[in-house]
User: What shape does this take?
Amino acid sequence: MTELLEHPTREETERKTIEKVSIVISKGSLEGIYPGLIMANGARMEGIEADLFFTFFGLDAIRRDRQAKIKVATVGNPGMHLPTLVGALPGFSALATRMMQRQMEKLDIPPIPEFVELVADSGAGLYACRASVDMFDLSLEDFVPQVRDILSVGEFYELAAGGEIIFT
Amino acid sequence: MTTALYADTPVEVDAEGFLTDPEQWDEQIAERIAEENGIPELSDRHWLVVRFMRDRYLTTGNAPSIRALGKESGVPVKELYALFPKGPAKLAAKIGGIPKPRGCI
Assistant: This one.
């Protein structure tokens, strides 16, 4: 005999508010980094607790030597609607980046270094991923001062407990 | 739209409690809204932020972004969040009697 599992009512499944988010930034391109920063800033603006965890090339967003040099990916990015060979022309990525930055400035979206500072000042925690840091042979000194610590995945999950995890 | 009573004054508010007509606002109303939202007393620094938000909205038709608020109000971002832990732009707009800021930044 089959037994019907009781379906939770809408009221039971519906949560009214999000209290906390932990956002993972794993990509090092301009379009890979901004969404996570915008979501973290937006969370803080709503009074939601937010932490950011930078992993793999996402670490570029918090590296002193690379933070200001983040570029749009013009190759391997179908969203550009350009032939791959055009995207690969020397200087093309820099040009696309400049155009996008100009557009964002108009919308009052800060450049990445300023945005990272803004998000940290708003109370979000910034953390680097242990495995990636070891792989790229980096240490805490390689990161901007807003980075609080280098965490293992386990420590990240501990930190994220009780909230939502968003992977970008 | 509903009517709320602040400091014995009836005002029109939206579903989230933001005044729909900035003209109905006054300082007593601001103090009551602040109290209701976890700020028992508005300091000079709170007022600086609230007035900046309100003036900017009334002159430009838009509430400033958190970036502009931190750069131009005279109150840095860290302090903004200390003053309004539940979201400076949103809360200052509510207390200042202007609509909820719609921007993402």
